[in-house]
């Protein structure tokens, strides 16, 4: 990786996906569409990106992404298994090869007893789901920006690792 | 309006909606989640914002937002009636009082014979749908940023005009 800005990583992810013939869909909560928007910023994104769902209200995580109501009731929306279910759900519902998801607490207030900066990002591929749990520093804008960056980087790592010789 | 930045207008829109007890959902194409993200940037957005759908691939405008396939086939995705249908569709599917939508050509290339900067934004309320058709100058980033700004401003105008004494 020669650059470190999110624009650069977004372009690298789209290139890595296109090389494998994989499409992408995004499910977002605290990032609110910013992951998807960072990908759309790259010219030619439409060759890879199908779209995204921002399920900001908790009930929409169940309705639009198929996250289990029992899981949401038991753990709340900010949970690694919820992130995994969001990634798998958006992958399936938008007919994409790869699903990328974010959930977390942007702040300024805590949520369900979790401090701002508690963030989970997940990537679902034909081979399964990987989740990364983070504690990000800073205020609302910094947490959201870092979550966007970490989500796109995780997807790039997973696609590069698993993207060769994998059935679609 | 005392400020002009998108952050300020986004905060004003959320305040205007909250005063009326109205919720909001967003459907995006060329803006790719940036309208929704600009609203999530405002602390307390969850009191008003339900979520959003980025239907970047044309088939998702039909599947996720209920835009008529015949309309999409006849006119393409960049069309005022498609913008209106996206706003009405996201309003209904996300159970929101107000739906806000964007579709257009960000560039750098023309699409369906339409030049970059061709953009339609739409707002659906309990009283109907208003569409604004724009020709925005600049490159991909400038067109997308201006589309975000114009969409949020249109929503603010419509909510302020129609937001009093209206049945929910």
Compile the SSE list and pairings.
The structure is a homodimer of 168-residue chains.
Chain A: H1 6-20, E1 24-28, H2 34-40, E2 49-55, H3 58-63, H4 69-75, H5 80-93, E3 98-104, E4 118-125, E5 128-135, H6 140-162
Parallel strand pairs in A: 1-2, 1-3
Antiparallel strand pairs in A: 3-4, 4-5
Helix pairs in contact in A: 1-6
Overall description:
2 copies of one chain form a homodimer. By secondary structure, the first copy, chain A, is α/β, with parallel strands linked by helices. Chain A has one domain (6-161): Alpha-Beta Complex (Maf protein). Helix content of chain A is 43%, strand content 21%. The first copy, chain A, has 6 helices and 5 strands. Chain A has helices at 6-20, 34-40, 58-63, 69-75, 80-93, 140-162, and strands spanning 24-28, 49-55, 98-104, 118-125, 128-135. In chain A, strand 1, helix 2 and strand 2 (49-55) form a beta-alpha-beta unit. The longest helix of chain A is centred in the C-terminal third of the chain and has 23 residues, at 140-162. The model of chain A has no long low-confidence stretch (mean pLDDT 94). The A-B interface holds A 26, 28, 30-37, 39-41, 43, 45-46, 49-57, 60, 64, 94, 106-108, 140-141, 144 and B 26, 28, 30-37, 39-41, 43, 45-46, 49-57, 60, 64, 94, 106-108, 140-141, 144.
């Amino acid at each position: 990786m020669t650059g470190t800005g999110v624009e650069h990583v977004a372009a690298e992810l789209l290139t890595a996906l296109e090389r494998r013939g994989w499409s992408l869909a995004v499910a977002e909560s605290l990032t609110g569409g910013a992951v998807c928007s960072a990908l759309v910023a790259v010219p030619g994104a439409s060759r890879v990106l199908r779209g995204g769902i921002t399920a900001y209200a908790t009930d929409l995580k169940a309705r639009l992404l198929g996250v289990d109501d029992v899981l949401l009731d038991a753990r709340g929306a900010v949970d690694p298994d919820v992130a995994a279910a969001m990634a798998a759900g958006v992958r399936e519902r938008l007919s994409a090869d790869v699903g990328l998801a974010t959930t977390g607490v942007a702040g300024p207030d805590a949520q369900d007893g979790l401090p701002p900066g508690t963030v989970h990002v997940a990537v679902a591929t034909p081979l399964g789901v990987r989740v990364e749990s983070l504690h990000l520093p800073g205020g609302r804008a910094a947490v959201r920006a870092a979550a966007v960056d970490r989500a796109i980087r995780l997807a790039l790592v997973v696609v590069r690792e698993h993207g060769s010789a994998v059935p679609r």
